Amino acid sequence: MTMSSSASPGTGPSAGASTTPVEEPSALRSRGAARYSDRAFTIMLWAAGATVLLVLGAMVVRTVSDALPVFQYQGFFSFVFGTEWHAGFSRQEFTGTYGAWPFVWGTIYTSLIAVGIALPMSIGVALFINFYAASRVRQLMSYSVEILAAVPSIIFGLWGLLWFVPTVLHPFSIWLNSVLGFLPFFGGSVPNVNYFHAGVVLGIMILPIITAVTREVMATTPVDEVQAAYGLGATKSEVLRKVVLPRSFGGIVGATMLGLGRALGETIAVLMLVGGSQRFDTRLFFAGDTLAAHIAATFQDASPETLVALMGIGVVLFIVTMVVNIVARLIVWRFAKTAGAGDAL
Q1: How much is the pLDDT for 11?
Q2: Residue 82 structural domain
């Protein structure tokens, strides 16, 4: 029996094959002027990013160029680390002595006091909101933290000067100084305005900033790691100490640096509470001054040469802030891998 080897049309392997359809324009493809919208949008984004750099560069160049004469007259390191500040009144030349270290010391000192008070409280509040508070309490506390962050610094200053310091903080400082007066950072008189009082109010001011960021970072802790720790028999406190806090380390450092940056540059509240003295001391209850507060206090009545010196103080404040941010990034970079918080910032 002979079988035919020929296949009839429409049968065989290629019978179902169809010709390639003609490519039609997609409905999502840009047409006309809209074809250039993506390029225009990219240019706008580049311009926005470049604007930030240009503004920062313009500020740095302008302030440094304006402050350069006082650096040349006093010497940069003598200006930063000098301990005597006697403003001159000349319009043509420098006649005063300009040493900004008392203000640098006051800025760093009050900011460290503020961070030392705010950081533990912020971590505690963030842990309570995320892991202990009931739903209604969590919402109320979160809203309260946001409201506190929006309070203007002048309100904090007035509240501290007129009620908190004389009613609460000053009596406590007198008692603390009498008990710990034998230690190096205590002793002497306790004026109504000093480093410690300014630092405490600063700590209250930066508390909501650190708390808000820390709370959000802790909320990103992977649920499977938390449940795994519970499954291994860990208690809630152990989970928080060994899982949540290590995971949140980078974010906590970033939040702390945000708060520290706010404290370093704070002006009005510190001006009301720090004392306004052009001297410095290691004692907590010494009346001193800060960089930003001294600029605000003396700018209006300053002579031309003193204005140049105040611009120098502004340059020093910028350098201090930049160093703090660099140190923060180094800390995060150093511990990110071991703490598992590399992506927290």
Answers
A1: 47
A2: 40-86
Give the pLDDT of residue 326: 83
With CA atoms as reference, report the closest residue to 306 among 68, 72, 78, 98.
Answer: 98
| Nearest C-alpha neighbor of 272 from the set 117, 115, 158, 112 | 158
Whether residue 5 is contained in a domain is answered as: no
pTM of the model: 0.80
Both 235 and 280 in a single domain?
A: yes
Assess whether 190 and 141 both reside in one domain. yes
Q: Tell which residue, 188, 262, 258, 178, has the closest CA to residue 217.
A: 258
The amino acid at residue 166 is P
Per the structure block, which two tokens stand in for 110?
Answer: 């009050």
- Give how far Cα 206 sits from Cα of 19, 112, 157, 213, Å: 70, 12, 13, 11
For residue 292 the two structure tokens come to 């930003």
194 three-state secondary structure: coil
Same-domain check for residues 133 and 52: no
Are residues 107 and 49 both part of a single domain? Answer: no
- Is 245 found in the same domain as 210? yes
- Do residues 323 and 231 make contact, with C-beta atoms less than 8 angstroms apart? no
Give the tokens for residue 126. 């963030």
Q: Do residues 155 and 204 lie in contact, with contact meaning Cβ atoms separated by under 8 Å?
A: no
Please tell me the total count of domains within the chain. Answer: 2
The two tokens of residue 142 are: 């979160």
91 part of a folded domain: no
Cα end-to-end distance, the chain, whole Å: 82
Q: Distance (Å, rounded) from C-alpha 265 to C-alpha 257?
A: 12
The answer on 331 and 262 residing in a single domain is yes
pLDDT band at 6 (very low <50, low <70, confident <90, very high): very low
Structure tokens at 67: 């402050």
Whether residue 270 is contained in a domain is answered as yes
H or E element that contains 332 = helix 304-339
Are 66 and 192 contained in the same domain?
no
